[in-house]
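Slide 14.
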Amino acid sequence: MRSSSTIGHKGNPARTPARLLTSALVTLGLFASYVAMLAPASAQTTSSIAGYIPDTALVSAEFEIDPQSDQVMLSAELLERANLGALLSEDDLDEFEEGLGAVSLFASGDAAVFLTELPIDESVTLDDITSDAANVTTDPESTLGGEIPQGWAVVIMPDDPDSMFNLYSSAIFQGEMASAEEVDYNGYTIMTQAGADEFNPGVSIALVDDVIALASQPEDIETVIDTATGDLDPLSDSAGYTDVRSALETDVLNFGYVNGPALLDALDAQDPEALATIPEDLAASFGAHQGYAFWADDPGFRLDTIALAAEGADIPAATSFEPAFTENLPATSLVYVGGADLGQNPGLNALALLFAQELVAGNSFGESTPVVDAEAQAEAIFAEAEGVLGFNLKTDLLDQLVGEWAMAGSVADITGPAPTGSAVFVTEVDDPEPVSGILTTLTNIVASQSGEGLTLTSRTVNGSDVTVVDLSESGAPLVLEFGVVENQLIIGVNEGIDGFVSGPTDALADDAIFQDTFAELPGEVTSIAYVNVQEILPLVEDVIAQTSTTTLDADPACGDYDTQIDAQAAYDEDDFENFILDLDFDGEACEDYFDPSTPDPSATGVGDINILSVGSVMFADGDAVGSSTIILIGE
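Slide 15: predicted structure.
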């Protein structure tokens, strides 16, 4: 493997595009480890474009770019059905269509991108990458800026390779083909335009049999040629790839694959000390063969993912459940998330361990040393942290969160000076006593902070004491409550606890959109997530209406003129003196004053969107875990 060099921006060398791209890959790996879809096994099918990708690729993604393909045509139908055009003006729609027309000139057949090495060197470590990964989850666009690091290549398999190669070459070299340096490699010609400096590395292109290969440097195109000539094994023959590919839908818009074991080996080779500090369960699941498929279906768009355990590895087990708590949640819930055995979730346990490590960072537990017995060390860290917290985060809390859990929230009114709503988190507990002890500790901590703007009381709910923290005096209508009620840990905001305990008039379980959403998804699940888009859209419209800064060109001074034409004449004669006639500064005087049909500035088109909901489930079976998500679009 060549030594990696980090390519970035002069103004921000610390957070280079190379680091951000790798952070995105790390995020994808961690995501796919826990939220992956298990689909029925089918006949093994591979994309022909994968025959040009080397099996040494750590990450790859394939795209359907033929505008006449079934998937692209169905996607267009779904977008029209969703009525997203209601958000755009006619000019915006015309611009969008022109842009699609320009893109369609280059769109033909299939395309793929792959990465064969990680941009980690002495200046960029795994700690940097994993730190940036957290930012990538909240700011995906941060991965798109600047140049892509070495080790990547794009392959395109068009219907007419020769014609499309000429088109791409002309676009890349801007008609100056003579300026490109040509190098012969194993019988193929690689054309390269050198970069202006280290921050602009240039571009290389080659026609390799039926595909066009693109990269920032010729060495990365050589891997495509070596695969085509048989010097490197193709990804299409890799067992990990084919197992993942055959477990997902085959006719899709986008398919991605992460070679977890190879990626883990690359991280270990380049930064072993940092990798040794990652919790064992997390590292093991990260090392799975992972993939995703994004595709168009008649009910809406779908995203399916899967993680298959590598040989000799295990994927953390998950418990299936029936979502009974939906009977106690209102149909107007904007969001709902539910699952089973929250305290056994490896991700939550990893976060708890990291938190405990921070509390005891002054001793040897905080050092980046290889872990001999990860479980014993974790127990020691939690025990040490107990001296600071007053309770054991693992045994007194996480180990007690057994059974069904759920979170949900709704907003009753956002038009007033202070929005009102309610939310609830509830989980069954194995032993209420240690959990109640923790809540007592928290209540004492809150009591020590009580003062102006905060009132601490308690009340009884179904025979159990519930702590009430009233923050209303601070100006926000906010009441936070928590307690253990009937072997359930419940945390509520405003009416959240009462609404859950007494049960709603109309339950989420009986809501038509909720039922239609999950009728499209697998039934035996380990967790569920739901967003009621139709409940959210009116709230978005209200927010836009309240915050709208649209200026109507209708000053009372317009009344001094009989017609808009008269006002325009006065404005044209002296626009400085009569500036008040054109408050929106568009050069047209008093148009809103004389035109009663002027649209309401609060009419945004948001309410006309025909997306009903987003639903997602996760489930597990043996050595695989998976997820299936749908964006449900109305008829």
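Speaker note: Confidence is low (pLDDT under 50) at residues 1-46, 120-148, 364-368.
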